[in-house]
Amino acid sequence: MILLSGLCSALLIFWITGGDLQAQSQSAHANIVNAWDRLGLSILIGNVVSIVIAGSISMFMVLYATHKIVGPLYRFKKICEEVGSGNLDTHLSLREKDQLQELGLAFSDMVHKLRTKKTQHLDLLTQINTQLEQLTQDQNITTQQLEQINELNRLVKKL
Fold this sequence. Notes:
By secondary structure, the protein is mainly alpha-helical. The chain has a domain at about 100-159. The chain is about 80% helix and about 0% strand. It has four helices and no strands. The chain has helices at about 1-25, 30-85, 100-135, 145-159. Helix 1 (about 1-25) runs antiparallel to helix 2. The longest helix has about 55 residues, at about 30-85. The two termini are about 60 Å apart. The mean pLDDT is about 80.
């Protein structure tokens, strides 16, 4: 940006003063004080314009770069809140040219694995409930065993 600003300033100074200084240098009575006044004002105008242009370009570049990073981070925050609430049916989608693509893929993979584990646990709990129900139906069961089975049923329901 500094190089762009310097180049812009030099081009503006050349454009503003080029004709006047060339005309003055061709006359035998060049007025150095007049040339310095014009050159000083040209330098000031050139520098102000180049700073405004370079600042504007820098501002747009910063906004663009932060948008590419902050947008995905905001989506990560929202999806983390949903996953933290237990909703594993969410899907994280980032735009094609957003930053953090690899992190997004890893996060989606993690949610998929959690969803798979949750499904496996629910299947196991169903099997445990079925077996506990069968044990409860057994005629040869003692009262103490029935109490233990009921305690197991209570613990399985908590899961």
